[in-house]
Amino acid sequence: MKKILVTGGAGYIGSHTYIELVESGYQPIIIDDFRNSEKFVIDRLQDVTGSSVIIYDLDCNNEKNLEKVFSEHDIDGVIHFAAYKAVGESVENPLKYYDNNIGSLVKLLKVMTKFNVHVLVFSSSCTVYGEPDNLVVSEDFPLSEPTSPYGHTKLICERIIENSIQSKSCNIRGLILRYFNPIGAHKSGLIGELPLGYPNNLVPYITQAAAGKRGQIQVFGNDYDTEDGTCIRDFIHVSDLASAHVEALNKLISDPNLKLDVLNIGTGTGTSVLELINKFEKINNIKLDWEFSDRRPGDVEKIYADCSKVKKSLNWSCKYSVDDALEHAWNWEKSLK
Ligand code: WQD
Fold it and tell me: Is the Cβ atom of 208 under 6 angstroms away from ligand 1?
């Protein structure tokens, strides 16, 4: 059974990927210091998969910690999730983002090289596209200035991986996955998104507001150049995003000639903020309390993925709809009450 190191594996996307890895016959090993996740997630992963979780409660921005894991297990590949990802926070505290997001990748690549581990799947983001001129972005799109330090850390990490692989200084082969907007929760309702503190993202705010934990939903801006005036995003079910990581791993392991590639992971369709609110109300039979407010600085007006490359390269496409994601998100929120 191939062992896969999952950094940040107790987090939102990491925990959902953990389940898909087990169900695909891999033995995942988690390194996570729970700075942005809760310990009960590990028990839930054991409940869902029916097997015990190998976890190292350690900071992966620490070479010694990484060496401990690599020396205790014969690792076949790595999925690197561990990073800070709050756009707003990165503007207030850029050094925290540069140190952790870039520092942990550099240390990971060095330790992978030391232990002769070649396969890497890297969690990147559509934020590297900045404010794209086109509504639909494909991977060869010229990358403009990301709109936040968070986006810059993802772009710099992509360059670090590219340069390292080209330099042959580390015998690594990698797939870089650029996520769009992950939403929803596992269909079991046992794991889901756990934003610590105020939820910056739209869907967790909606579910918390619907559960009476938050006030009125603010729709940031209704004067954008879109059909209903609100921003457009590519909202993808987190379990679909998770399965894309497993397919990326399968591809790297099965194709030794694959050195490096970048893939958009989205649904290929755009949904506006207002459309999403209406979908949530309809699928969950709930009336939401919302109002229009000012635009949020740094928001991209409209973006969604051209997913033709990932469909061709990994023979992967989404199984779930936005409606499924909103239903699963609400099931998860209700389980937290
Ligand atoms: C979506 C839309 C808001 C909250 C996120 C992550 C980023 C990246 C991509 C991973 C925007 C609007 C939001 C609210 C609102 N993911 N909104 N009221 O900004 O697209 O970026 O996904 O790398 O890390 O931050 O997602 O959910 O914050 O916003 O109207 O209370 O919803 O203006 O148009 P965003 P989001």
Answer: no
Classify 225 as helix, strand or coil.
coil
DSSP 99: I
- Residues 6 or more apart from 324 whose CB is under 8 A from it? 184, 237
- CB–CB of 155/143 below 8 Å? yes
User: Is pLDDT of 117 > 80?
Assistant: yes
The answer, yes or no, to whether residue 144 has pLDDT greater than 80, is: no
pLDDT, averaged across the chain:
95
How does pLDDT run across 200-220, given as a tens digit for each residue?
899 999 999 999 999 999 999
Domain ranges of the chain: 3-184+235-266
**Catalytic residue status for 150:** yes
Q: For the domain 3-184+235-266, what is the CATH code?
A: 3.40.50.720
Give the Å distance between the CA of 180 and the centre of ligand 1.
10
Do 323 and 283 form a contact (C-beta atoms < 8 A)?
yes
Nearest atom within ligand 1 for CA of residue 206: 31
Q: Are 12 and 76 in contact (CB under 8 A)?
A: no
The answer, yes or no, to whether any atom of ligand 1 lies below 6 A from the CB of 85, is: yes
Per-state percent for the chain, helix, strand, coil, to nearest 5: 40, 20, 40
Q: Give per-residue pLDDT as tens, 272-331.
A: 999 999 999 999 999 999 999 999 887 889 999 999 999 999 999 999 999 999 999 999
Three-state DSSP state, 202: helix
Please tell me whether the overall predicted TM-score, pTM, comes out greater than 0.85 for this model: yes
195 lines ligand 1 (CB under 6 A): no
